[in-house]
C-alpha cells in the first residue's frame, strides 16, 4: 500500500495511528506560544498526529490550538490523534491517573488517544518534576514498572485514554510487561530515539514480532538542547551520503531521513516550529526511496545516541 499523508497504522488494540506526527518539545527558552502556533499550522497543512507530554510544559497551549482548529472547522476531535506521556514522578499505580487527569485538564480535552510511560526510569514522587538532592543529583525511586503499567491499564478501562504504550524502553523492559501475570492490554507502541545513526534494527524486529509499533523521535538528529544533547555528536543532516541521495531526488536531507524511517514501517515524530519546515516534513509522501538507497542508508548506522540520558 502506497504511503500518503492520510496513512495510518492499525495498532494491536484496533485503533489507528497516523504515520507522521508533529513533535512539540522545545527547550525552556522557547515561548510556549510557539508550540500553539506550530500545532495550528500543522493541522492546517494536514497533520493529524500531535505529540506532547506533561514534562514539556506546553499542554495548555497545545490543547488551546487543537480546540481552536476544531472550533473553526479545520478538524474534528476524532480526526486528531493526540499523544501525551506519564512523567517519571507518577509511576506508583495510584498516581498514574492523577498525571493523566492533569494533562486532560491542561488540554481541556475529554480523552487522550495515546498515553505513554515517558521513561522506564522513575524519580521520587512529589510535586517537583525533577527532584534533586543537596548535591544537585536526581532522586530516583523504584516502583515496579509492572505496577505502573497496571495504572495505565486502569486509565484505559476508565475511558480516559484510547491506547496505551511506552517510550524509551528496551526489549527487556518491554518483556517485563508482556510477560506479567494478569496482563490486560499489551503496549501498542514504543516511542524511542531512532535515526540514521541509531536505526534500532534489533528493537524494531522485536517490536514487530509482538505487534508493537515502533515510533521514532529525533529522526532529524534531535533538538540540540544542552540539557540532553551530546555536544560531541555529528550533525546528522550534514551527512554526505544522505545529502547525495537527497540531491538525487530533489528533496531535503530531512525529508529523506524521514522517508527512510517510514519505509521501514516506523511512525515518525518530526519536530519543527517553522511553518516552512512543518510543510516540508509532510511532503515525504511525494517520493520513494529505492531498495538500494534504503540499504545504503541502513549502512549509516553507528549505534550512536544523540540524546544523552545521563545528564
From TrEMBL:
<keyword id="KW-0273">Eye lens protein</keyword>
<keyword id="KW-0007">Acetylation</keyword>
<dbReference type="InterPro" id="IPR018170">
    <property type="entry name" value="Aldo/ket_reductase_CS"/>
</dbReference>
<protein>
    <recommendedName>
        <fullName>Rho crystallin</fullName>
    </recommendedName>
</protein>
<dbReference type="InterPro" id="IPR020471">
    <property type="entry name" value="AKR"/>
</dbReference>
<dbReference type="GO" id="GO:0005212">
    <property type="term" value="F:structural constituent of eye lens"/>
</dbReference>
<dbReference type="GO" id="GO:0016491">
    <property type="term" value="F:oxidoreductase activity"/>
</dbReference>
<feature type="domain" description="NADP-dependent oxidoreductase">
    <location>
        <begin position="20"/>
        <end position="301"/>
    </location>
</feature>
<feature type="site" description="Lowers pKa of active site Tyr">
    <location>
        <position position="85"/>
    </location>
</feature>
<dbReference type="Pfam" id="PF00248">
    <property type="entry name" value="Aldo_ket_red"/>
</dbReference>
<comment type="similarity">
    <text>Belongs to the aldo/keto reductase family.</text>
</comment>
<dbReference type="InterPro" id="IPR036812">
    <property type="entry name" value="NAD(P)_OxRdtase_dom_sf"/>
</dbReference>
<dbReference type="InterPro" id="IPR023210">
    <property type="entry name" value="NADP_OxRdtase_dom"/>
</dbReference>
<feature type="active site" description="Proton donor">
    <location>
        <position position="56"/>
    </location>
</feature>
<feature type="binding site">
    <location>
        <position position="118"/>
    </location>
    <ligand>
        <name>substrate</name>
    </ligand>
</feature>
Amino acid at each position: 500500500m502506497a504511503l500518503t499523508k492520510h496513512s495510518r497504522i492499525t495498532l494491536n488494540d484496533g485503533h489507528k495511528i497516523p504515520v507522521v506526527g508533529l513533535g512539540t518539545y522545545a527547550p525552556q527558552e522557547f515561548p510556549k506560544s510557539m508550540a500553539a502556533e506550530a500545532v495550528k499550522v500543522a493541522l492546517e497543512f494536514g497533520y493529524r498526529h500531535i505529540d506532547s507530554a506533561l514534562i514539556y510544559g506546553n499542554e495548555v497551549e497545545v490543547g488551546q490550538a487543537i480546540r481552536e482548529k476544531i472550533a473553526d472547522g479545520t478538524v474534528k476531535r476524532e480526526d486528531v490523534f493526540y499523544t501525551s506521556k506519564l512523567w517519571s514522578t507518577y509511576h506508583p499505580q495510584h498516581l498514574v491517573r492523577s498525571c493523566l487527569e492533569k494533562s486532560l485538564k491542561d488540554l481541556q480535552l475529554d480523552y487522550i488517544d495515546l498515553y505513554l510511560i515517558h521513561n522506564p526510569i522513575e524519580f521520587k514522587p512529589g510535586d517537583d518534576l525533577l527532584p534533586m538532592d543537596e548535591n544537585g543529583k536526581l532522586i530516583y525511586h523504584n516502583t515496579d514498572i509492572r505496577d505502573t503499567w497496571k495504572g495505565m491499564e486502569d486509565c484505559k478501562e476508565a475511558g480516559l485514554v484510547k491506547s496505551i504504550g511506552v517510550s524509551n524502553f528496551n526489549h527487556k523492559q518491554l518483556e517485563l510487561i508482556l510477560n506479567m501475570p494478569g496482563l490486560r492490554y499489551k503496549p501498542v507502541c514504543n516511542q524511542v530515539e531512532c535515526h540514521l545513526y541509531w536505526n534500532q534494527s534489533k528493537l524494531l524486529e522485536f517490536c514487530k514480532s509482538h505487534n508493537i509499533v515502533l515510533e521514532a523521535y529525533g529522526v532529524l538528529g534531535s533538538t540540540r538542547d544542552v540539557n540532553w544533547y551530546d555536544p560531541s555528536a555529528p550533525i546528522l543532516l550534514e551527512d554526505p551520503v544522505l545529502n547525495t541521495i537527497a540531491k538525487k531526488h530533489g528533496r531535503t536531507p530531512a525529508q529523506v531521513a524521514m522517508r527512510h524511517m517510514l519505509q521501514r514501517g516506523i511512525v515518525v515524530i518530526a519536530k519543527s516550529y517553522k511553518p516552512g519546515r512543518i510543510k516540508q516534513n509532510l511532503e515525504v509522501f511525494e517520493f520513494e526511496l529505492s531498495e538500494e538507497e534504503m540499504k545504503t542508508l541502513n549502512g549509516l548506522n553507528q549505534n550512536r545516541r544523540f540524546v544523552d540520558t545521563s545528564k
